[in-house]
Specification:
11-stranded antiparallel beta sheet, 671 residues, signal, alpha+beta
Amino acid sequence: MPVYRPWNRLLLLGAAAVFALLPGCNGLADESAPAKTEQVVPAKEAKPDAEFAAAYTGAPPDAARIVADLERRNPQHPRLFATADTFAKLKEGVRADPLLRKWYADLRKTADKTLSKPVGAYETPDGRRMLSARDARPIIEQNALMYRLSGEEAYAKRAVQEMMAMAAFPDWNHAKEFLNTAEITAGMGIGYDWLYDYLTGEQRDAVRQAIVDKGLKKAIDAHNNKVWWTVRLDPVNNWSSVCNGGIIVGALAVGDEEKQLAGDVIARSLQSVQNIILKTWEREEGWSEGPGYWRYMMEYAVSYMAAMQSALGTTYGHAQTTGMNRMAYFPVFATGPQGTFNFADNDSGKMKIPELFWLAKATNDPKLASLRIAMMEDAKQAGGVYDLLWYDPKFREADVSLPLDHYDRGAEVVTMRSKWNDSSALFAGFKAGSAIASHSHSDTGQFVFQAGGEQWAIDIGKDDYNLPGYSNYEKERYTYYRLKPEGHNTLVFHPDGLFQQEPAAKSRIESFVAKPQEAFAIADMLPAYARTADAARRGVKLAERQRLIVQDEFRTNTPSDVWWFMHTRASVQLAEDGRSALLTQNGKRLWVTMTFPKDAPQPAVFEVQEARPLPESPNPKGQTPNTGIRKLAIRLTGATDVRMAVELVPLGKTEPVPVSGSPFVPLAEWK
């Protein structure tokens, strides 16, 4: 297992370097039978930092306890994420530490861009989402922090302009999208707290009353009415973290003035997030909504815990939740040298995660902080508000040991790679899971592949959330190309216009083996194909860490047409016999071939198709055109009992095209 020292090598890292430095671990099992594994990973959760451990009580707090803790610990302003002493020390740090100085310059540039930007407008362009809500918090906190550090009044004025605009809104969109309510409440609370001494008495009253009327009271109503995000555990969703977390931050800002209301809403929000988000951390090893929604969930989970730690001196045990440290690494393994395995409604870009600095301290896991620094260097990310606030220089030189392969139980996602610190490394992602999970796609069997600095087999991503029925998982959602099996790199049995996989089914990784020279995973996909098959298994192997094998073994319940698909942006040239293809992209090459058992040859060839629905499939209007994307396809006619492997082999610049692929080895013999 390689060991990296990221701080000493930051300038030497290639495009994939940050993720060459990222650790991870396996942990809790769920009620299903465990997958076979030979991977060696850290088994223990990191111990909490002494500050957090000492504050742990374990008992759910009531409103009176919360208010008492606020009055005892930090009744003055500022108290959210930082105190006056924190800001004073940060000023000194900016003068003394070159890294902090760079991030401060980054923050100034970011805040300067907002100075002439119009304040947010009260509008929902799509009829549901208030887009200004997403911008309000960063505008307020960026400018408020710049004022605290520089003393330049222009920044304070810009933050106050945004706050007064939000305060004047008739509501914060609680009826249509409570996420917006929580986002604005958090931003307003931060501005109220950090700029308390700058605000006039009239401005304080307006902002505080808006937080109370448009944020906290609406949250109490939601809890009283048991709105779904306050009580529902399954399917897991980011809403509980964002909605409860944002409200807690806002309530802490006014808790000394609105004691009963703030104490009550914090207590109820803590119970809600404990029953939903923290319970998910305890039982699962990944986030089924995908990396981008993990980021949204963790942003607000860390926000409320960090605000409580600074304002109350405790998180009431939330920061000691079993699984929090493990969950911090989920996006690490989901990201390859050329981008993220963007299953579900996610994009493939690399993410900004300043929360890793806070998590490093909360769990006493210094490598998380080193990883955040390396991530910023790799992606050339600018420093931001929480990088400045949560960075601790003592954590920056941690050694990081990384397994090459990882299995996220719960999300049912496996990733494998040839190396960490190589932008040309091979990387494969493979997914089973459920199509009924929040933001999920009907994509059991999906795989992606990166090699030679290119993405070859890709996930083409989400579509427009405003398409009719996009969130109706039992009807319209899986009529859209990008969300159903034929829009992914998987199989379609007997296309007839109906669901191509069972939406409510959950398929699991039944075997996962990681060895020094290779790794593989096998999924039982029969739950997804129960309508059209009697058996369905797919294995994905990173063989010799030099090539990828995607192997299917299935038995249909009636002779059927079966399609195999792989989406790509590469150019495709088919061999004369149709049994192999040469993909080219940016001067790089990938050879793809198919193999069958010697005793069961199949009359199949590759073909190249546009990324659009099959003739038998519904094709609703308004879908995103898949411009520049094509798919390599195999059609099996009248298929019944099939065993087939497709092999993907990256080629060097002068390497000749192979004459034949590897011999077929049944999944039962994969060891």
